[in-house]
Amino acid sequence: MPELPEVETVRQGLLPAMKGKSLVKLELNRKNLRFDFDSDLAATLEGKQIADIERRSKYLLMHFHSVKDQQTLIGHLGMSGKFTIFSHNEAKMREKQKHDHVVFYLDDGTEIVYNDPRRFGFLVLADQGDWQSHKLIRDIGPEPLTDDFDAAHLAKKSAGKNGNIKNHLLNQKIVAGLGNIYVCEALFRAKIDPTYPAGILTTKAGKPSKVCTKLVPIIKDILAEAIEAGGSTLNDYRQADGNLGYFQHRFVAYGREGDDCVSDKCKDKIIRIVQSGRSTFYCPSCQK
Ligand SMILES: [Zn+2]
């Protein structure tokens, strides 16, 4: 499942292919993905120019402009969604693949295909481009890579919380876009036991604890490193097959059950536990 860094990489890949181009035709090969398509989706967007593509949490925000109005298409990749870019020349030879649900035809001949076998992804219009108040987005917490997400914010949201810190960090109202993989990686690097109560992030006086001031920059670093790694693969990857956003990161905790802990001098192995139905990977010697 793509998390924030993968979605950011997709955004960076789509941007040069789409920005400033006009949408000639929007092909919808079904009536829905996770949600029904807006009934007037194609008619609303066709003829408009793609002014920009932004990201909020794990949502892509495609801004379509015309002289008359502005619309924002909110996109989510779900479990298996992917965009593939076909240049003018490549598009001539493109063969329709199973699960190609949406195709964006641009005025320079570029075709951008959205393929999603499991169909947990979606594309929905924000009313009059007002994506900030869309119900999917309005309650999301601060972006982790902005100054709005800092130790003071996390401490405030964690005061008196008895639930475990792992699930706490997955709560999108506290911080945007963190998922299972990067929470496991951040807790490993910060040497925090994922079963600890979230309240350890806050002192009795309501200030950030030492654990909190250590964790916040680690979360930022881990996400920034993954975005950097994704960006550096982008050119090669696009040349290979045009797919965006699915590249193999190397993780030190996530997915490594039974493997040796990578920390210096640690002789323990990574274990897996289940918290709220989701796997957590950690080193019981380093993270305590
Ligand atoms: Zn260890």
UniProtKB/TrEMBL annotation:
<keyword id="KW-0456">Lyase</keyword>
<comment type="subunit">
    <text>Monomer.</text>
</comment>
<feature type="binding site">
    <location>
        <position position="99"/>
    </location>
    <ligand>
        <name>DNA</name>
    </ligand>
</feature>
<comment type="function">
    <text>Involved in base excision repair of DNA damaged by oxidation or by mutagenic agents. Acts as DNA glycosylase that recognizes and removes damaged bases. Has a preference for oxidized purines, such as 7,8-dihydro-8-oxoguanine (8-oxoG). Has AP (apurinic/apyrimidinic) lyase activity and introduces nicks in the DNA strand. Cleaves the DNA backbone by beta-delta elimination to generate a single-strand break at the site of the removed base with both 3'- and 5'-phosphates.</text>
</comment>
<feature type="binding site">
    <location>
        <position position="118"/>
    </location>
    <ligand>
        <name>DNA</name>
    </ligand>
</feature>
<dbReference type="InterPro" id="IPR010979">
    <property type="entry name" value="Ribosomal_uS13-like_H2TH"/>
</dbReference>
<protein>
    <recommendedName>
        <fullName>Formamidopyrimidine-DNA glycosylase</fullName>
        <ecNumber>3.2.2.23</ecNumber>
        <ecNumber>4.2.99.18</ecNumber>
    </recommendedName>
</protein>
<keyword id="KW-0479">Metal-binding</keyword>
<feature type="active site" description="Schiff-base intermediate with DNA">
    <location>
        <position position="2"/>
    </location>
</feature>
<feature type="active site" description="Proton donor">
    <location>
        <position position="3"/>
    </location>
</feature>
<dbReference type="InterPro" id="IPR035937">
    <property type="entry name" value="FPG_N"/>
</dbReference>
<keyword id="KW-0378">Hydrolase</keyword>
<feature type="active site" description="Proton donor; for delta-elimination activity">
    <location>
        <position position="278"/>
    </location>
</feature>
<dbReference type="Pfam" id="PF01149">
    <property type="entry name" value="Fapy_DNA_glyco"/>
</dbReference>
<dbReference type="InterPro" id="IPR015887">
    <property type="entry name" value="DNA_glyclase_Znf_dom_DNA_BS"/>
</dbReference>
<dbReference type="GO" id="GO:0008270">
    <property type="term" value="F:zinc ion binding"/>
</dbReference>
<keyword id="KW-0227">DNA damage</keyword>
<dbReference type="GO" id="GO:0003684">
    <property type="term" value="F:damaged DNA binding"/>
</dbReference>
<keyword id="KW-0234">DNA repair</keyword>
<keyword id="KW-0238">DNA-binding</keyword>
<keyword id="KW-0863">Zinc-finger</keyword>
<dbReference type="InterPro" id="IPR012319">
    <property type="entry name" value="FPG_cat"/>
</dbReference>
<feature type="domain" description="Formamidopyrimidine-DNA glycosylase catalytic">
    <location>
        <begin position="2"/>
        <end position="121"/>
    </location>
</feature>
<keyword id="KW-0511">Multifunctional enzyme</keyword>
<feature type="active site" description="Proton donor; for beta-elimination activity">
    <location>
        <position position="58"/>
    </location>
</feature>
<dbReference type="InterPro" id="IPR020629">
    <property type="entry name" value="FPG_Glyclase"/>
</dbReference>
<keyword id="KW-0326">Glycosidase</keyword>
<dbReference type="Pfam" id="PF06827">
    <property type="entry name" value="zf-FPG_IleRS"/>
</dbReference>
<dbReference type="GO" id="GO:0006284">
    <property type="term" value="P:base-excision repair"/>
</dbReference>
<comment type="similarity">
    <text>Belongs to the FPG family.</text>
</comment>
<dbReference type="InterPro" id="IPR010663">
    <property type="entry name" value="Znf_FPG/IleRS"/>
</dbReference>
<dbReference type="GO" id="GO:0034039">
    <property type="term" value="F:8-oxo-7,8-dihydroguanine DNA N-glycosylase activity"/>
</dbReference>
<keyword id="KW-0862">Zinc</keyword>
<feature type="domain" description="FPG-type">
    <location>
        <begin position="252"/>
        <end position="288"/>
    </location>
</feature>
<feature type="binding site">
    <location>
        <position position="161"/>
    </location>
    <ligand>
        <name>DNA</name>
    </ligand>
</feature>
<dbReference type="InterPro" id="IPR000214">
    <property type="entry name" value="Znf_DNA_glyclase/AP_lyase"/>
</dbReference>
<dbReference type="GO" id="GO:0140078">
    <property type="term" value="F:class I DNA-(apurinic or apyrimidinic site) endonuclease activity"/>
</dbReference>
<dbReference type="InterPro" id="IPR015886">
    <property type="entry name" value="H2TH_FPG"/>
</dbReference>
<dbReference type="Pfam" id="PF06831">
    <property type="entry name" value="H2TH"/>
</dbReference>
